[in-house]
Write a structure and sequence with these properties.
Layout lengths: L17 E2 L5 H10 L10 E4 H7 L1 H8 L7 E8 L4 H13 L4 E4 L6 H14 L2 E5 L15 H11 L4 E3 L5 H11 L3 E4 L9 H7 L3 E4 L1 H4 L4 H17 L2
This protein binds xanthosine-5'-monophosphate (XMP).
The site of xanthosine-5'-monophosphate (XMP) has 20 residues, from strand 3, strand 8 and helix 9.
Length: 238
């Protein structure tokens, strides 16, 4: 199946759920098929570095494309952390292997790496998604207070419109929403890390990213439905 082109790549109406498929490629394929009945609530699927280890990125995308036409976001956990020339090669390879969007985390690598990542994504037709802050305790220990703003300003200047913000820190989501405006916010940290879907969306998250809260649920279809209902309530109460 041909890769969705960036100009046509659309995460769809807001809000939408992004299941994080941090499970084996076989299990991911089964989960995608199961979630077929709630695909309207799903904006994209996020695949992971674990898939690249297990199956290779190319094989993973080819396998999962049998079951869905939704955009596939690659989370290298964490990309855009190396020198510009390597980061460029990674983005071009991800595009070649059929990924539609690529998450970059340049917080420790700096502006030249960010520039190279975004440039290579654009050149290859990938949607670049840039992380501004992580969710876990101690996430900002080695960073300056101004780091997210510096990253945002540079990314914004480069034309980036999609950002990852921590779904369990509502005041931070609201602050970042003020910078991002009509752009899109995707947020992990929901359910397993304590973030509440409705609260995160109310604060500005457009696309909750949920891994364990979906793939470990007894009924993943019901979990996506419930997350979507919560997201919808949050969106309507903005
Ligand atoms: P869970 O199972 O916690 O999975 O819903 C979250 C997914 O999002 C990826 N990711 C992050 N997770 N904080 C997170 O909690 C972050 O800052 C972050 N950035 C990305 C994570 O790798 C997993 O796939």
């Amino acid at each position: 199946m041909p890769r969705t082109k960036i100009e046509k790549m659309d995460l769809g109406k807001k809000p939408g759920i992004i299941p994080a498929l941090d499970i084996s490629v076989g299990e991911a394929g089964e989960l995608i098929q199961k979630l077929g009945e709630v695909e309207d609530y799903i904006a994209a699927y996020k695949i992971s570095s674990l898939h690249a280890f297990e199956f290779g990125l190319k094989g993973t995308v080819a396998e999962l494309r049998k079951f869905t036409e939704k955009p596939i976001i690659y989370d290298h956990q964490k990309a855009a952390t190396d020198i510009p020339s390597i980061v460029e090669k990674q983005a071009k390879a991800a595009a070649e292997y059929g990924v539609n969007a690529f998450i970059g985390v340049p917080l420790g690598a700096g502006s030249k790496t960010l520039e190279a990542f975004v440039g290579a994504c654009k050149e290859s037709g990938l949607l670049p998604i840039i992380l501004l802050e992580m969710t876990q305790e101690g996430a900002t220990d080695y960073l300056k207070d101004a780091t997210p703003r510096l990253v945002f300003d540079k990314a914004n200047e480069l034309g980036v419109t999609h950002f990852v913000c921590p779904g369990n820190k509502y005041d931070k989501i609201a602050e970042y929403k003020g910078w991002i405006g009509e752009g899109s916010i995707m947020s992990p940290g929901i359910k397993a890390q304590g973030g509440k879907c409705e609260e995160a969306v109310k604060a500005g998250t457009d696309y909750p990213i949920v891994g364990r809260g979906v793939y470990q649920a007894e009924d993943p279809v019901a979990a996506v439905k419930e997350l979507y209902e919560q997201a919808k309530r949050g969106f309507e109460s903005r």
